[in-house]
């Protein structure tokens, strides 16, 4: 292999094991999913570039004002504007480093993926050839290479997850038209992997809604989707309204995302959420 396991890990900044969702004891994913990783990587890179473009536009605007202010304005205002410019410049440098780190991780991931595919193809070819001592030794070595590449891919997936940021999910209420009546009570359960959010709400007499919680922070990961379950509470009984899953790849955006999810098959009850990355 051109990139051994030690070389892959030595190129990355190591963090405490708890930082890697995929590397926690008992949670190591031994089945890398290159297509899913590619999907998240492309969405993440697109979102980071949009952040970068927005802050670059802000910097250009502030720099223009800075030049005008230097000629004909108060000194205090000029220094305040200068402070803003330096702050935006620092944030842009952080974004650029973030993007380069994500690209470096994904490039290393693709290399390990190609090495694993090559070793797997060779292993299959050797397994079809006549059994000799040399072929058996080659099979053992190829099997070891496949295992090491798989382990490296899992490690890189965990390292990449550290750079995914946070999702701030806000509850905006249920939409159900005639299905929602004053006095109705509902429970919404949102899960992302091991992360859970359970909240209860009530339809008031003026058709407004009150919920015991309004916001929850989720740490995104590469392999899990949002699972949303809504139940209606009637005394001691609960009636399942619907269960849906929601892909998080579209949430990597600098602008708040308004999400409307059909809870029932016919869309008679919908759940409104707002996601800020």
Report on this model:
This protein has helices spanning 5-10, 34-72, 75-128, 133-161, and strands spanning 167-175, 185-192, 195-203, 209-211, 215-218, 226-234, 237-246, 257-262, 270-276. The chain is an alpha+beta fold. It has two domains: 34-162, no CATH class; 167-276, C2 domain (Immunoglobulin-like). The longest helix has 54 residues, at 75-128. This is RIPR3 protein.
Query: How far is the first residue's CA from the last residue's CA?
Result: 38 Å
SSE-based structural type: alpha+beta
Task: Count helical runs.
Answer: 4
What percent of residues are in strands? 15-25%
Reported for the largest beta sheet, the result is: 5 strands, antiparallel
**Mean pLDDT across all residues, rounded?**
86
Order of helices and strands: HHHHEEEEEEEEE
Domain count: the total is 2
Structure keywords:
9 strands, 4 helices, 4-stranded antiparallel β-sheet, RIPR3 protein, RIPOR3, 5-stranded antiparallel β-sheet, alpha+beta, FAM65_N
Secondary structure layout plus pairing:
Layout: H1 5-10, H2 34-72, H3 75-128, H4 133-161, E1 167-175, E2 185-192, E3 195-203, E4 209-211, E5 215-218, E6 226-234, E7 237-246, E8 257-262, E9 270-276
Antiparallel strand pairs: 1-5, 1-9, 2-3, 2-6, 3-4, 6-7, 8-9
InterPro entries: FAM65_N, RIPOR3
Organism: Pheucticus melanocephalus
Pfam family, one: PL48
Summarize the structure.
The protein has helices spanning 5-10, 34-72, 75-128, 133-161, and strands at 167-175, 185-192, 195-203, 209-211, 215-218, 226-234, 237-246, 257-262, 270-276.
């Amino acid at each position: 292999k051109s990139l051994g396991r030690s070389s892959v890990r030595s190129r990355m900044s190591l963090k405490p094991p708890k930082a890697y969702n995929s590397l926690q004891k008992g949670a190591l994913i031994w089945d890398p999913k290159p297509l899913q990783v590619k999907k998240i990587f492309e969405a993440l890179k697109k979102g980071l570039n949009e952040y970068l473009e927005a802050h670059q536009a802000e910097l250009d605007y502030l720099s223009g004002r800075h030049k005008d202010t230097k000629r004909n304005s108060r000194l205090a205002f000029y220094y305040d504007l200068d402070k803003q410019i330096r702050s935006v410049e620092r944030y842009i440098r952080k974004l650029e480093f973030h993007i380069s780190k994500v690209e470096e991780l994904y490039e290393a991931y693709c290399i390990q993926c190609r090495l694993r595919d090559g070793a797997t193809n060779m292993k299959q070819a050797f397994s079809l050839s006549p059994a000799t001592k040399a072929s058996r030794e080659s099979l053992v070595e190829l099997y070891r290479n496949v295992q090491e590449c798989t382990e490296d891919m899992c490690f890189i997936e965990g390292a990449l997850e550290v750079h995914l940021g946070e999702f701030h999910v806000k509850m905006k209420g249920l939409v159900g038209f005639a299905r929602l009546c004053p006095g109705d009570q509902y429970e919404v359960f949102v899960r992302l992997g091991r992360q859970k959010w359970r909240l209860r709400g009530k339809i008031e007499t003026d058709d407004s809604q009150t919920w015991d919680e309004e916001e929850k922070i989720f740490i995104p990961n590469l392999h899990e989707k949002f699972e949303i379950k809504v139940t209606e509470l009637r005394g001691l009984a609960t009636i399942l309204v619907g269960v849906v899953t929601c892909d998080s790849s579209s949430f990597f955006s600098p602008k708040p995302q308004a999400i409307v999810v059909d809870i029932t098959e016919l869309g008679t009850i919908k759940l409104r959420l707002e996601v800020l990355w």
